[in-house]
Design a protein that fits this description.
The chain has about 180 residues and is an alpha/beta fold. It has one domain (about 1-184): P-loop containing nucleotide triphosphate hydrolases (Rossmann fold, 3-Layer(aba) Sandwich). It has 9 helices and 5 strands, in the order βαβαααβαβαααβα. The protein has a 5-stranded parallel β-sheet with strand order 2-3-1-4-5. The longest helix has 15 residues, at about 135-150. The model has no long low-confidence stretch (mean pLDDT about 95). Bound molecules: adenosine monophosphate (AMP). Adenosine monophosphate binds next to helix 2 and helix 3.
């Protein structure tokens, strides 16, 4: 089962992806976590993306697509995966589409976690994960980037008939149940 978990920053993608991973036994692939690991490990990729991430901007599409393509080649992702934080632009969605076609694979759902903007800011500023991009100014940039560059991805999958809206307001369990109902 191949799923995209989509939504603005602070919608709860990471939390829900981990729950789906645990309950359905499908591994999660989070581009944001991969970049944070690269920064922690001071790899060449980490050095390249640090400033961009710290500013709350998007890493260039070709860098992200190369990373995802390489990761998805691993045997653990052969039977399926949950994408968290990718695709985040229409060119990334196009590249992912080509990748799926190349491997003869299909996406089963594009789950969109829907949360009003005021609530997103509140959640991010109270989550206390110590992320350098979780400050009010950076969150503002990330939300603007989301509206300008990422939100159009939603229409891309609507047109493909894969879009499923998930009400992202409620407890972690309530939201997870909504997702589980759609996936079952
Ligand atoms: P996230 O953990 O998904 O909130 O991602 C944190 C940061 O990583 C984002 O603000 C971007 O700078 C970068 N990033 C993660 N995924 C992508 C992506 N698919 N395209 C571009 N930048 C990304």
């Amino acid at each position: 089962m191949r799923i995209i978990l989509f939504g603005p920053p602070g919608a709860g993608k990471g939390t829900q992806a981990k729950l789906i991973e645990k309950e359905f036994g499908i591994p999660q692939l989070s581009t944001g976590e991969m970049f944070r690991a690269a920064i922690r490990n001071e790899t060449p990729l980490g050095k390249k993306v640090k400033v961009i991430m710290d500013e709350g901007k998007l890493v260039p599409d070709d860098t992200v697509v190369d990373l995802v393509e390489e990761a998805l080649d691993k045997p653990e992702f052969e039977k399926g995966y949950i994408l968290d934080g990718f695709p985040r632009t229409v060119p990334q969605a196009d590249a992912f589409d080509s990748l799926l076609k190349k491997h003869g694979k299909k996406l089963v759902a594009f789950l969109s976690l829907e949360v009003p903007e005021e609530e997103l800011m509140r959640r991010i500023l109270s989550r206390g994960e110590g992320r350098s991009d979780d400050t009010p100014e950076k969150v503002k940039t990330r939300l603007e980037v989301y509206n300008d560059e990422t939100a159009p991805v939603l229409n891309y999958y609507k047109k493909k008939g894969l879009y499923k809206a998930i009400d992202g307001i409620g407890t972690v369990d309530e939201i997870y149940q909504r997702i589980a109902n759609v996936l079952k």
